[in-house]
Fold this sequence. Notes:
The protein is α+β, with helices and mostly antiparallel strands. It contains 3 helices and 9 strands, in the order H-H-E-E-E-E-E-E-E-E-E-H.
Amino acid sequence: MTDGVMKMKQVREALWVFFLLAQSMTGLSQGNGKSAADTTGAIIERPTRATLIAETDQRFFFFSDSRNEANRWVPINVWGARVGMLLPAAYKIGLGVYYANQRISKPGLIPETSASVRRQLRYLTAYYEPYLFRKKLWELSLLTELGWGYSQYERVDNPALEQEIAKGNFMPAGLGVSFSVKLPPIRGFRPIHWFGVNFLSGYRFILKKDIPASQINYNGLYYSIGPAFFLDRFTADFRAWNKQRKERRNERKKLNKINKNG
Length: 262
């Protein structure tokens, strides 16, 4: 068994241990909700109605077929965005769309080719993301994804030859852990707490390979670190502001009516 396979196996085992620990911690916190809140000093945030969510999702993948001359994994930048709903049961569901453009100098990756190729991936995923913890200043959730994608391989060494050399469809699935830090309002300025930082890590594996006869392999770890915008917090603040505005308007109408009658 190679070192790469051993490392991947160890990481998968570590992720499963983390999942089990997080689930048991969730059970303890739900069983002793008051004491847990007292010890952490954080307020549990739970939505009271379904809320639209939208976020960018840039990830770095370590595909098993993308290694350098030293046989080390090379991170591949995958751009994406997600849109869905945050439900009162404290979980998110939705869709994600992703795109990757990568140049590979690996002879023999695709049968009967020895040239550098450009790989383009486009895929759509459906995701389910339950929260383990949802506090005032941080949240922890598990991400499960299943999708369908399209791949295209083009040669980049000789423009005189046919550019497309392979294409196919693949089915990705993934498991991950997401941790977000949420900023608090500063001196009553609430827009600050719409923002934060998100950390995401997990493992993606392929249920259906796009080009079975090739050495192409999209299995691998991924991670993401970037800014976060909490649309649910923005929506909650907007609803509260709109409610207060209506209440003030109704109060002014009542006062004007009293003054007229007086």
